[in-house]
Amino acid sequence: MGRARPHDRNPAGPVPRISWAARVREAGAPLAVRPYRLHFTARLLSWTGSAVAPIGLAFAVLQIGGGPGSLGAVLAASVVPQILLLLVGGVVADRLSRARVMVWSNVVCAVAEVAAVLLLVSGVARVWHLVAMSAVCGAAGAFFTPAAGGIVVEVVPAELRHAANALLKIGQNTVKVAGPALGGVLVAVAGPGWALGWDAVTFAASALLFSRISLKAKTVETRAGFTADLREGWDDFRSRRWLWVMVCQAAVIVPVWLVGYQLLGPVYGQQVLGGAAPWGVVVSGFTAGLVAGAALALMWKPRRVGLVVCAGTGSMAVPLAAMAAAVPLPALVAAAGVAGTGLAVGMTVWASLVQERIPADRMGRTLSYSTLGQILPVPFGYLLAGPASHLLGLRTTLATGALIIATAAVAPLAVAQVRRLCLASQAAKDDDGAVTTARAER
């Protein structure tokens, strides 16, 4: 796609600047679409439950006599079913109504958590009950994730999808700021069982809202079965070089980040910063960055998506490097804010690109392969974190993690398809506003 020649330039002159008031109106436009408004409200409700649930679950395990090992088993029980069933969930999301899949996924989670609440309140709960509840919710999530990833394409016009994705990120990240505090208060006042009860209520309410989303009936070709659907999804995934290259990047960065920030970060807070309170300030800086990044993505639609996504993921190396260098607390908080901002911008822009490039009838399966590639290495990262920190030391392990993230973030830019990635709406215009021919690569 070449630049416009001088004689092809827009005779009307420079494109006028868009006022901030107009940008704000455009940013809120998706909320005028009723199906999206229902989806947005349902997700916001569900996220309030999801922000509270981890605290309730942790203290529920402790309340019934479990320890760190028991809590680890409960958490692992939610991940394993997702790994096993995610590809099946992608096929189901492409075959059936995505709204219906989301309804039943939420209903299943609500029922499982109500059962756990009743057992906790009655005083007969055991760790294996919570393991079973976590496994059921993890299995439901394997069906919910591919369906939720594709529904925006069905309910929002193409020109509004970027704003729609950004609004969802703003809602999700804003809840992350207040959710843990709410969970702590709820556990302290009413007990951990009622914190899980709130999560169950939000699942049920979200299911009700999802049930009111009307989608066009899908026309599904007669196929040989699930195996054929899985093969078609795999063929679509691997045929898009830019997609699997970026998934490989995420497969490296996601486990390293989770180990460095979520697992070793609190250890750093205890050993170096002096306790949980200063580490909580760092976490607040990261969540504030997430909100700021989502707001920035709402108002800014970058042209070079590949560069922006790689820069956003690369920013996640900054707080790990700051911890390795033992910088003062204010500098570490700022570093965490930079990572949150970069991550939110990158994720929002990436979601818009995927929705634009992947056919709607294959979205669920392609996203399931993408998600599976990112979460599959996570358990191995957790297993290696302890031995690595003992062998290398805490700060050296964090420095190594920062180096790995930075390297993995830059590596995809060696691929021309990644460097040229851009949204069609942005590629259709030259830098000075001249219209050119948009040619999207697979």
From TrEMBL:
Keywords: Cell membrane, Membrane, Transmembrane, Transmembrane helix. GO terms for molecular function: transmembrane transporter activity. The chain crosses the membrane at residues 44-64, 70-89, 101-121, 127-153, 242-264, 276-298, 305-326, 332-354, 366-385, 397-416. InterPro entries: MFS, MFS_trans_sf. Coiled coil: none annotated. One of its GO terms (cellular component) is plasma membrane. It is found in: Cell membrane. It is a multi-pass membrane protein. PANTHER family: INTEGRAL MEMBRANE EFFLUX PROTEIN-RELATED, STAPHYLOFERRIN A TRANSPORTER. This is MFS transporter.
